[in-house]
Design goal:
globular, 3 domains, Annexin V, domain 1, mainly alpha
């Protein structure tokens, strides 16, 4: 008699892992072809295209069944709708180049940008943070604050990181104090930028900035930079510093997200990023994650954590910020609910 144990069901060839939302979108776009994909991409925002473009570049061994499944889910989702309801006329050049290669991306970019209505301010969203910092480095701090407020928080934090320390403090204080900007002033700034970038239509945005915006920007900064900047803010205005701190959302706040929200979040986070992030988490945070996974998945994650060994603190912080970025996107779309640190941490 053979000593080999009978094969368990899981020892057989396992079915392909179900694709996540972003991977499904990538499969659908690649199934459509360049022309149709271009028409969809031009209605998506920079960060959306970055995520989808990255997923497109990473797709491997997609089966026909998976393609058919994605298509069926899409048709079911939009079957009762009169339109897709998709938003901003923007996308990221760099991600398309990474996903499709120089030649294909160049052709696709040309088709998408023809007739586009990107404004001068919007054009900044396609640029590297260092380049934006160079453009506004010698502008008045109020102009710098308006530009930083207009950018997405993660990009804005990168711009601040490339400015001098004293300038950084001045700008974030001005961002927190901003409520509205006169449309004429914003239009003049937009016109100046359009002369450099050959943009299109006028901007209608006038309400930007505020304490919440300052908190969102600081959420994306490196921990050491964030701590130094917060200390400087409190030295100038302790109440403002406390208000910003209350509105910030950090990795430990995920402990207070409900179970359904954590499960939704975990579907969007890769195992490698999750392992790194949990290397710097306390036991309560780890148990929160383990408790929202299947028993087998939790056991595998525990084993991976133990086997990982020492890691750099900077790598842990980067992984945690990546997860927070996904969490905020899910919160913005209404799929999960987040709260501020002031409400949930002692």
């Amino acid at each position: 008699m053979s000593d080999q144990a009978p094969a368990k069901p899981e020892d057989k060839a396992a079915p392909k892992k179900k694709l996540g939302r972003v991977e499904s979108a990538a499969v659908l776009l690649m199934s459509l072809g360049e022309a149709d994909a271009a028409q969809i991409l031009k209605h998506m925002g920079p960060k959306e295209v970055q995520r989808v473009g990255t997923a497109m570049a990473q797709l491997r061994d997609v089966t026909q069944d998976q393609v058919e499944g994605v298509t069926a889910e899409f048709l079911e989702a939009v079957g009762g709708q009169t339109g897709l309801g998709i938003g901003a006329d923007e996308y990221i050049r760099a991600m398309l180049t990474q996903a499709l290669g120089d030649e294909k991306a160049s052709s696709l970019i040309d088709r998408i940008l023809v007739g586009g209505n990107t404004t001068g301010l919007d054009t900044l969203k396609w640029m590297e943070s260092r380049s934006i910092a160079d453009i506004i480095r010698y502008e008045h701090p109020q102009i710098q604050a308006i530009v930083v407020s207009y950018l997405d928080p993660d990009q804005a934090s990168g711009v601040l990181g490339n400015l001098d320390e004293k300038v950084r403090l001045d700008v974030i204080m001005r961002v927190a104090a901003l409520e509205t900007v006169q449309p004429q002033a914003l239009q003049e700034l937009n016109d100046i930028l359009e002369k450099q970038f050959s943009g299109g239509s006028s901007t209608k945005t006038s309400k930007i900035g505020g304490v919440k915006r300052a908190a969102d920007i600081m959420n994306f900064m490196d921990s050491s930079v964030e701590a130094d900047l917060m200390e400087q803010i409190k030295e100038i205005d302790a109440d403002l510093g406390g208000e910003i701190e209350d509105l910030m959302f950090v990795f430990e706040n995920l402990k207070d997200v409900d179970d359904r929200g954590i499960q939704t979040l975990l579907r969007e986070v890769s195992s490698d990023v999750l392992i790194l992030a949990l290397k710097g988490a306390d036991d309560e945070m780890k148990e929160k994650i383990f408790g929202n996974m299947s028993k087998r998945a939790a056991e595998l994650l525990r084993d991976d954590l133990e086997a990982k060994g020492p890691v750099k603190l900077s790598d842990v912080e980067t992984a945690q910020k990546d997860i927070l970025t996904i969490a905020r996107k899910l919160a913005d779309s209404g799929e999960i609910s987040l709260g501020g640190a002031g409400e949930e941490l002692i």
